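User: For a benchmark we're assembling, each entry needs the component sequences followed by a predicted structure for the full assembly. Here are entry 17's components. Please fill in the structure.
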Amino acid sequence: MSIDRKVIDELFDLSRLEVEEQAKKVLADNVESILAHVAQLQELELSDVQPMISPGEVILPQRHDIIEDGVGREGLKGSAGYEEGLVRVPKIVG
Amino acid sequence: MTKLNIQSTSITEAQKLLNDGHITSVELTEQCLSKIESHDGMLGAFLSVDRDDALSQARASDERRRNGKTRGPLDGIPLGLKDNFLHQNQPCSAGSKLLEGYISPYDGGAVRHLREAGAVLFGRMNCDEFAMGSSNEKSAYKPCANPWNLKHVPGGSSGGSAAGVAAGMCFGSLGTDTGGSIRQPASLCGVVGLKPTYGRVSRFGVVAFASSLDQVGPFANDVESCATIFDAISGHDARDSTSAKLESATTLAGLKSGVKGLKIGLPKEFFPESGVDEEVASIVKSAAKTLEDRGAELVDVSLPHTDYAVATYYVLATAEAASNLARYDGVRYGPRLAESEGLEPMYRKTRGTLFGDEVKRRILLGNYVLSAGYADQYYVQAQKVRRKIYDDFMKAFEECDLILGPTSPTPAFKFGEKSTNPLEMYLSDIFTISTNLAGTCGLSVPGGLTKEGLPVGVQMLGKPFDESTILKAAYALEQALNLDTCSF
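Assistant: Structure for entry 17:
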């Protein structure tokens, strides 16, 4: 199957991926060939089948509203923009 | 000091040597570290090793033993961790340049269990980037080879975890299995690898790939060691909302009770007329016969949607991956690029440059199948096929206690053999993927060697939360075959 060039551009945009034009073409070709394989799923008539989201129980676990140990701001140290318990990012508003 | 052949020493045997005072944990750890120093240059199983931290843990274990406070069968035993487990104050890159230099702020659930059990945890074991791959060729750092033949891949994505164990660099290790990433490298490296039932082991503190498919599990050179590690890491964890509310497993208890009367299902879809290497098929059939000779009953079963498993998986896994990996944007984790150009360019440049091609491919595919206009056609349809695959397993398990077949259609392939065609690589997971979709448990246990001397694994799949049965059958096969471990 062939994906429209506009859709390809939107896909890279949506995925927040900046890549060279040549690499973009190779990746887009790969996605097309995988989608061609995936198209076999359409052979199956499954209108009466419930989708399976997860093999586990899909329940929302609840717990008491008690503060437990956490990593706090120390957990932000893995950021390249970490400064004194905060994360510096580029300017967002003018 | 007792010099051990680590590959052929089980955790139970090592623990006895420790208890009897024939060796210390420091000496065991030194032997592992020494093997890594002398041999890992040509293997590539480890991305890094913190020698001082490992020895410090070993000294603490020896101290506990001297004081009569040994914690159990894993106390003082050196184990390795795949590079996608958070291990406090140690690097965790998930094999990616996007997480280069990231230091874990806390221990994950399984790691915490192993620490409490007194294991000596060391090393960041090589893997495909973000656990996406079947050969370890997608590691952003370096390739990992197969210790049985260095020209061949170890499998993936937990290739380093399997290769390091096979090479005797640790007594066991942890990996993750999203579509076969424990069982396939275990098969290709001639070790035992267990993918527990979804929810059986905490995923807390593991770098997420596809959250409804990922599961943590152990590698070891023998079944008993694998069961020992599994029992230690299993159990409910409130920090993982998908963790099953069950106590720790106790698979060791019935491990040696034999297979008499056990019904073993052989799905016809796992033994096709073509598509499986002849030597692989022969070794797997012979393994089934060996178990039959020991009292098991072989029955024919069917998993009719097996042919759709790869397509289903590559829709669902990529959709979940695209969402999970959205968090890596240069803000909270790892390095950032083009910061001076503004927020959006920083996101795009950081992700576009630091993610490898396989990861980018899956993010693109995942976002495509989730996007408006395509979600019903691909994503919802794949969820429905998933239900059919699950139903197939439950129906088959009405006829048998476990399912047996090949783990991988081929033995370990050579570097580069499949790396240019992503789809061909994906299809090599045909026999492992359906287990993740159904959420059941499975393992790979060595079944023999090809004429070329490459290992072939036998896959055993069990009912949900019935790891005991597949471990028991794997133990019976291991005892009957009595195969040599890797001599690397």
